[in-house]
Write a structure and sequence with these properties.
about 30% strand, four-stranded mixed β-sheet, alpha+beta, 2 helices
C-alpha cells in the first residue's frame, strides 16, 4: 500500500528512520529519539511522523519514569521502557 503525503497528497512517500527531538511532558528538558519511524516525501521535501506515531510517543512519555531517560534514546528502547500507569489518564480522545 502506497502512503500519501500528509502535506502535498502525493503518493511518493518513503518510510525511513530518523532522529526527532522531543520535549518531556514536565517541560524540564528535551531528548533526542533516534531511529524513529518517519515519513519522507521527495515531492515536497517534508519529513514527518504520522499522527498515530506522535500520539504513541506522547502517551509513552506520560506513562514512564522520564527521569530514567538519558539525553539520547532509541525509539525501540523508549517504547520498551516499563510503564508506571496502565494508560494515559490525561488523554480524553480515546
Amino acid at each position: 500500500m502506497k502512503l500519501v503525503c500528509e502535506w502535498c497528497d502525493k503518493s511518493n512517500v518513503e518510510e525511513i528512520e530518523a532522529s526527532v527531538y522531543w520535549e518531556l511532558p514536565d517541560g524540564t528538558r528535551a531528548i533526542e529519539i533516534i531511529g524513529t519511524p518517519t515519513h519522507r516525501c521527495p515531492d515536497c521535501n517534508m519529513v514527518y511522523q504520522s499522527e498515530l506515531l506522535i500520539k504513541e510517543i506522547e502517551n509513552q512519555l506520560f506513562l514512564i519514569d522520564c527521569k530514567q531517560i538519558e539525553t539520547v534514546i532509541t525509539f525501540a528502547a523508549l517504547m520498551k521502557m516499563p510503564k508506571l500507569l496502565k494508560r494515559n489518564y490525561f488523554d480524553c480522545s480515546s
